[in-house]
Amino acid sequence: MNIKLAGWLRRGVLWAGLLSLIALVMLVRQAIAMYQAEVYRSSLQPHVLIENTLMGANQTPQALFANAVFYDNQVKPEQALSAYAALISKLPEGDALRQQAYFNSGNIYLRTAIRLLEQRGLPAWDEAGPLVALAKESYQKALRVEPDWSEVKYNYHLALRLAPTTHGMSGPQQYEDEQIKAEQEPSGWPAMPGNPRGMP
């Protein structure tokens, strides 16, 4: 009887130690999350860059999003896009913050392309064309999650107007050439191969 009691006590102490260890790990994780949230909240007031690397405070999805917005406001599109890409890689597919990151990334691509075309005109298409394609891709990814998002639809259609059919084309000149060629080709009866049948 005494041996059974000692065995029960030993197992009870082991289970209590294991539960205490799990509780301690959860408490530490909760403390880290609270610290990261506090760093994020304190940096939002003056809207400064979150550079605090202690316990990964600058690598939380919220901190990456805040940093991306900060870089976008400072007109540093490369850094903003990099922060959005890091954020997207950390979040699951249906997350609202990830969806917003796709939308904001598309806006950066589209603004950069429009800025290039306004500054240098049509010769800048070689640089602006891929940016417009990336903007459309970002908007499509955002629309896959929420198809009724009107702001994304509007910007997506703006990107489509800027480059209606860029698949396999090198730029607007080739698109215009294709349109002229399509207008010059005959349509209706003259376009049908062979002799018309059933005509009197």
From TrEMBL:
Entry protein name: MxaK protein
Organism: Methylophilus luteus
Region Disordered: start-end pairs: 165-200
InterPro entries given in the database record: TPR-like_helical_dom_sf (IPR011990)
